[in-house]
Amino acid sequence: MGIISTVGRQRQPKIQPDLRYYEQVKLMKNRYTRRTFPNGEFILKKLPTSDVGGQLDERLVGSIKIHRDPTPVIQYLNNIIEKQYNPFLFLYRRVVGTTLNRDISDGQVTIREYDFPIEERFMHARVFYPDEVQQANELAPVILYLHGGGFIGTTFDTITNTCRGIAYKAGAVVVAFPYSLAPEKPFPHALVDGIAMLGWVRDNAEMLGVDPGKIAIMGDSSGANIAAAMNIYDIESGNQWIKQQILLYPIVNMAMKETPGYEWSLDEYDIHDNDEIITFIVKSLGIGVHYINKLYAKHVDLKDPLVSPLFASDKTIQQMPPTIIVTAEYDFLRIESEAYAKRLVTNGVQTSFFRYRGLDHGFVDKIGIFPQSEDALNEIGIRFRETFGLGKMTETESV
């Protein structure tokens, strides 16, 4: 079973939201257009206070500091990537995961920490219990959450408030865990860790208070890539333990190759205002994926579906569980995420796809600061509860 220490309700430093925050979270409930398909839905979320497209959210404009061409920086990274001491990696790991955010659960989530041995190594899990679950006195559905960080860094502490929020909104136990990082431990180490954690949750379901038949997988960015790969592995191994996948701006095409349903172009982005900033935001992440490839999956076929889920077979995709995909309008990964969603819909998978206008990659990390971040968790919570037959969110939970 391992070692357990209860962190409890753990207060964090007070971060005051924008005075308009709560009003705009409420507004976001109705700020959308929706297209439905026989087994899917595409939802375009508008800016909180504007119907005009082609522009950044005002909060994001104020936070962007670098507007220059990122190409020279990436060329420098390519020159140092093979060196034993990589200064970029050192600096990146110090900076990644420092995004400010806020607890939106109103103190109604308890955290417990577990350390336990798996296959000759120790792993750590941070488990989130909403009051709703603890008061129900029955086994709860569970969400395994994989943090982002580009496979080479960790946002494990940053996502604490995201996990609090999703536990609160979804009425589920959330299990988050740090996984192995490249380049020290490249593919498939992180995937192996995820599969091991899935097994640990099932094996210890009673101790954790969760229902082993109601498991969802969730991740953001690189974590969403690993989550999607875990789902593919789960299907192809014949287990099918995962009953829902929730992917926040996932990396699904590490190969960066065009497919019949995917071709990346800057022309796919609606840009009217803030064009210099938007172009920088979109292109810099795209070039960065090339750098990450060299560290995470250098000696691997990048079209392997466990590396690039977009290349999974139709047979595998047809067996996937209900899926939620959330993207940002000005995210380089948006185009491949949309291509993945289309493949799922075409193959009969119940799919909800969200695109948030005016935002960039990683916006859910800003939970409690950007109203769209909380709105995304509201939308996820609604659909999670529908999938697992839970009661609807209360008015307090949905604000």
UniProtKB/TrEMBL annotation:
Coiled coil: none annotated. The keyword Hydrolase applies. Residues 143-364 form the Alpha/beta hydrolase fold-3 domain. GO terms for molecular function: hydrolase activity. It comes from the Bacteria. It comes from Aerococcus viridans. The keyword Hydrolase applies. Keywords: Hydrolase. This is Alpha/beta hydrolase fold-3 domain-containing protein.
